Each structure stands twice: as structure tokens, then as C-alpha cells.
């Protein structure tokens, strides 16, 4: 019985201690992260993010699995300078379609990252890597 007492005492107190602490930071991070992330972005980064999202949605509506060239062309046509773009490969080395295609546009210390996966668009802003690029490895 004393074995059950200590086991059940820490269990209720641990979840009681962890449960409020764990969701609150997660909720605060998610809520504050979204709001503060948007609030902390420069106006030009916000515009670039909106431009990328709009361009990717237009492209994804026409082609749920666009080619690398189509993605680059769509972003340049939307006004994003080609010199700031990094675009992932749309085909694997064995010639299969990639599960997703990603693009990044660098602006100051921000990388606006966009992804099309099965016709769904996701856009986020991440910091520029120490290399000065947005992607790790080879991007074309």
C-alpha cells in the first residue's frame, strides 16, 4: 500500500504541476508566437509573406504538384526578385515527383518560406541561416 501511495501521490501532483505548465507555455507560445511573430516582422517581410502566399495559392490551384521552374516563374512574376529566391527540386534523383516543393525568399535577416504539398500551401518566416541562405544544401 505504501508503494501505491507514493506512486499515486507523485502522479497526481506531477500531472497537476505539468499539465497547467505545459499547456500554458504551449498556448502562450502558439498564441503569442503567432501574434508577436507577425508584430515583430518588418512591414516589407509581411508584404513578402503575403505575396508569396498569394502566388503559391494561385499556382497550387492550377497544379497541386508544380515543377521547380513553374514555382520559380510564378514567384518572379509576382514581383519577388529571382536573386533572392531558393527553390527546392520538384523531382527526386530517381525521377519521381517530390512529396512537396518549397521556396524561400530572403529579405534582410528573414527567410519567407513557402511550401506546396498536395495542393496545400503553407508559408512561414524563419531566420536566415549562418550561411546567409534559407536552405541547407543544394538549392537551384
Mean pLDDT: 78
Low-confidence stretches: 1-37
N- and C-termini, Cα separation:
66 Å
Number of DSSP strands?
Answer: 4
Lateral arrangement of strands in the main beta sheet: 1-2-3-4
Instruction: State the order of secondary-structure elements, H for helix, E for strand.
Output: HHHHHEEEE
**Helix/strand class:** alpha+beta
Principal-axes shape call: globular
Rg from alpha-carbon coordinates:
21 Å
What does this structure look like?
By secondary structure, this protein is α+β, with helices and mostly antiparallel strands. The protein has five helices and four strands. It has helices at 4-8, 10-21, 23-40, 43-62, 68-77, and strands at residues 85-87, 100-107, 110-117, 120-127. It has a four-stranded antiparallel β-sheet with strand order 1-2-3-4, with helices on one face. Strand 2 and strand 3 (110-117) form a beta hairpin. Helix 4 packs across helix 5 (68-77). The chain is globular and about 40 Å long.
Amino acid at each position: 500500500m505504501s508503494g501505491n501511495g507514493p506512486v499515486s501521490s507523485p502522479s497526481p501532483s506531477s500531472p497537476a504541476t505539468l499539465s497547467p505548465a505545459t499547456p500554458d507555455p504551449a498556448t502562450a507560445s502558439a498564441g503569442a508566437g503567432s501574434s508577436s511573430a507577425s508584430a515583430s516582422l518588418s512591414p516589407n517581410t509581411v508584404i513578402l509573406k503575403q505575396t508569396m502566399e498569394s502566388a503559391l495559392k494561385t499556382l497550387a490551384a492550377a497544379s497541386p504538384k508544380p515543377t521547380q521552374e513553374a514555382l520559380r516563374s510564378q514567384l518572379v512574376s509576382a514581383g519577388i526578385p529571382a536573386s533572392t529566391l531558393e527553390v527546392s527540386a520538384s523531382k527526386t534523383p530517381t525521377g519521381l515527383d517530390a512529396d512537396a516543393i518549397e521556396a524561400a525568399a530572403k529579405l534582410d535577416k528573414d527567410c519567407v518560406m513557402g511550401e506546396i504539398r498536395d495542393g496545400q500551401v503553407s508559408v512561414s518566416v524563419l531566420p536566415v541561416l549562418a550561411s546567409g541562405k534559407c536552405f541547407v544544401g543544394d538549392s537551384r
